[in-house]
Amino acid sequence: MALPVTEIVYIPLKAGVDLDSPTPEAEIFQETLNFMAAQEDIQGGYSGRQIENPNILIAKNNADWTSYEAHMKFVNSPEYGPFGQKVLSITDSPHFHHLQSNPHPPSILGTAPITEFTTFYDVQLSYFDNLKEFVKRLGREKVDGYLGCAFGEVKEKIVRHEDVGNEGVEKGNAVVLLTGWESLEMHTRFEETGWFKENIGLLREGRGGVEWSHVSFKAL
């Protein structure tokens, strides 16, 4: 049975692109979101900018598909070519992969004011067990400002965002953790707690690199 997936798209904006004003680029971007939302096998999704790099990256345009095969059918369809060209007109080197999220869809993206979006790269086979244990412990703890999470394995082998397009960089297994927070400040305070310092070791062993950002998501 085909499993549903969440498409994660990184969209680095070209220099000078303004999506906050009524510009041609903003119109193109809205057209791409509308086109995505109209696809038959899409179950919904969210988009948002990285707080840390708002002028560089539209952070993780998430689309929930009925299956990996359904999304790839769309990618290989005649309609995808013109759609892709529109995206390329406002971005530099967009790329995507697929998350097998628990739960699916990752509804925390639509309910939390702020989501910490973390990807762990080059993970060992046992790393997903560490992630599940961390999530279980976090769920038992009464953490001020914590609203819930979603997590899962990436279907494809991937490289860090900064290494996309670099020859010679070997792809590896990855997992994603999405944690929802009432505010960025509350998440920052959480990382200063004794509980965090005692348990974060679960996520520091058995992996290579890590990339994280904070995003305020909105529904497509």
In whole angstroms, how far apart are the ends? 27 Å
β-strand number = 9
What sort of overall outline do the alpha carbons produce when their principal axes are compared? globular
Rg over CA atoms, rounded to whole Å, is 17 Å
| Binned strand content | 25-35%
Residue stretches low in confidence (pLDDT < 50, at least 5 long) are none
Average residue-wise pLDDT: 89
Polypeptide structure, described:
This protein is of the alpha+beta class and 220 residues long. It has seven helices and nine strands; from the N terminus they run βαββααβαβαββααββ. The protein has helices at residues 24-37, 68-75, 80-88, 108-111, 127-140, 184-190, 194-199, and strands at residues 5-12, 42-49, 57-65, 95-102, 114-121, 146-154, 174-181, 210-215, 218-219. The longest helix has 14 residues, at 24-37. It is globular and about 50 Å long. The mean pLDDT is 89.
Give a brief description.
This is ABM domain-containing protein. The chain has 220 residues and is α+β, with helices and mostly antiparallel strands.
